[in-house]
Amino acid sequence: MDNSSLQKLADRLLAKIRNHPGHEYNSEKLAKSFKVEAADIQGAVTILKRMGYVLKSDHGKKLVFVSPPDRLFEEEILHGLKTRKFGRKIHAYQSVQSTNTIAHQLALAGIPEGTIVIAEKQTRGRGRMGRRWHSPEKVGIYMSLVIYPQIDPKLAPGLSLMTAVALAEAIEKFGFKQEVKIKWPNDVLIGNKKTAGILTELSGEIGRTHHVVIGIGINVNQKSSDIPEDLKNKATSLRIAGKKMLSRVSLVQEFLLLFEKEYGRFRKSGLNGIRKKILSYSSLLGKRIKITSGKEIIEGNAIDINGEGHLVVETPSGVRLFNAGEVTLS
Ligand code: BTN
Hints:
With 330 residues, the chain is of the alpha+beta class.
């Protein structure tokens, strides 16, 4: 059997045995049911083991599925995904420059809304303000979602906040109740350190959006030594904060489900439908802040986030609204 047929057999074998972990399959019977040789089943088992699946195989006679790997394979993400649309089409890669760039190209080619691009590693992960997003292999989540919202591009900042809410809600489900905060406009913090960031990129013209790519970077299983020295006092990972490793696959699935819900609300009633949540997660409200917006640095009190996602700041020269910027507490 050639390699590609063997890979297909491995996929079919996995689909059959993974739903019954611990069950002892007879390899010969499996070979018969797939109409292949017993040696082909062994070949498929070798492929699955190499991918990280834990299988017990006894001298090629018995086969037991033990556990899946925490790898961002299409098959793993789809298995147990509860969404209707989001994440149903997956482009999964080992290594890419940036998932946002690929998602943008796919959107230009018209891929369906809800498609995700996800990678185990990025070599040129991009952050906001032209910064880089450190994307070490197999420990983080680097994912881009494509959507086609029929909104005025002016309202796009709201999409980042909506995504931040879904992300915060998803992270909370992994044992971080009360600790998760959203730092306007689109950082997710735990214990005042950044654990996830969102890069929303829009393609459109004045008054009309063609597509939006929402890029999400989550520090999940990074150890302290995986965080670059210059970021150590500002950044963390869920593993560092929670003192245990998490399933990246489960977090992606949870996030996609919550994103689908929050995006549904956003489409019906804009940010107003989720504004209460945004306010309750906010790390800035009621605080004295310094905001850098363009060439200006302004100090004041953060008093609100309005229905368009603007940060409302009380300054010595009056109340001002910001639709973007870099904020520090002062
Ligand atoms: C930020 O906080 O500055 C935003 C970071 C966004 C990083 C993600 S990782 C997946 C996607 N691809 C990229 O190149 N960037 C985003």
